[in-house]
Amino acid sequence: MLIPWRTLFYQMVLNVSYDIVKSLCLGGHDILAAIKENSPMGEFIANITIAEEPRVNSIRLCLTGENAGWFYLEGRTIRLNTSFSRGLDREVQGSILLASLTCYEEDTKQNEYRVMVEILNENDNLPYFLEKTIQPRSISELTAVNSVAFSVKAKDADGDIITYIIDKLSPDASYFRIDLPNSGIIILNKPLDFETKTELQVNICAVQEMNTIEKYNTTATIKISVLDGDDQYPQFLPCSPVSEHTICTNPLYIANISEEAENTILHFSPGPIHAEDGDKDILAPVTYAILSDDNGRFTINHETGEISLRRRVQNRLMASSFRLLIMASQVNDPKKYTVTTALVRVVAENRFPPYFNRTTYKGFIIENSSPATLVSTYGSEVLIIQATDRDFKDGINPKITYALHPIATSTKLYHITEDGILIAKATHLSAFDRHILEVVATDQESGDVANATVDIEVLQRGQAPRSPFGEERLFGDVNVGIAGGLAAVLLLLAVAAFCLLLRLLRRWRHRRDPVERGSVALGKHPNVEPSSPIRTHQTP
After folding, report:
1. Is residue 351 part of a domain?
2. How far is Cα 152 from Cα 377, in angstroms, rounded to an integer?
């Protein structure tokens, strides 16, 4: 709706011809004109014409009023008065400049007329975003797709309509879209996931719709923090990722008990039994429960997940293991849960640790070009380093593994097999070398260890080995090289026969009656000494 003076302005434009005053002092008319903003200094505004000119020199014109400073008179012409530091700006001065033109004749005021100049708008301003609408913001990952994510607002001093566009080259432009270009409302285009992306960044452009050559625009970068929502289920730890999106498989917890165990807390591996909410920023508390049990034989602490054995196993051959289904669910949402398995194995009690029959083993190697050579004893046999376990009738514990303790660089020159046989890299050895190795035997079931030292010397090619205890030579001085080669062949044949014998022995053990095979599957040999648990002194 136009205000009254603007209506009057347009009416007067229709009633006057351009901006000519026909008779200024003798009943002229108001001056109406228009000029573009940003016009230069001295821009023409209007001419003043005196209809009757008796004694022209006695006529004096003067500009006064609120905006008179924007004009100056050049003879009978009104021009724009601007400067380098003061330009005509419609957005600052407004749309109309008002002044008064007074006509004096011989210093006597005769008439006064209005000068009204409209400032025509030009597209000379960039749009700008309202600062509060482009601040960093947070959005929950549970925000529904196709719902409003946030909104922005831009303005233009020229009053232009603004169109909003998402910059497709911005890092996370695919997450958002704009359905109504002039609204500034940003719609969520695809689901958010806190577990894979916690920070988003999108550039929004505000473009003028004015139909001019200039298409002024401005861009704002919006940073969005994705808030964790309660959309993940609990997970038992340690978590084993199966994809890049942190999808995990629950571990299998394993614990061993003996027939004598009762009213005891079980220690699981990997352990302890523990589950956490998959929403890492929420970590809702979880509660634990046993879904399958043997008539209350096991109980679980609902807050910690600690499992206890209440009743002992009467006969481990009749109940060799128990599989417990453990459930962890969120306290605030029982529908969010996960289930894993805890395997409880009933094994024979470990009463004796493994031990070596001697503290130091001595052996030798004859220098040769073979990539792998067996270490021999001075009794012309293959050096076998094997620990004894008195929990077994034959002293052989199949759960014992052997390793070389890395006490020196020479450890890299040797390898010990699962049967305790030392193999050397002969091509890396030099005559007269001497190596001291430490062998560690570990019972994988009980964790008990035993240690022994191996003293190995490297003999020169053709040199006959002598016993370190002063015994006679094992080979004569004649044809020593042949004897050495023959010994190496015999050693290799002996090792092959020994390994074959061990494999046959193991197969024979596994072919025993089903009760014994079940016991072996539990990780303990069936030939367990039922004697007193008193440990004997280890003799070196």
Report:
1. no
2. 86
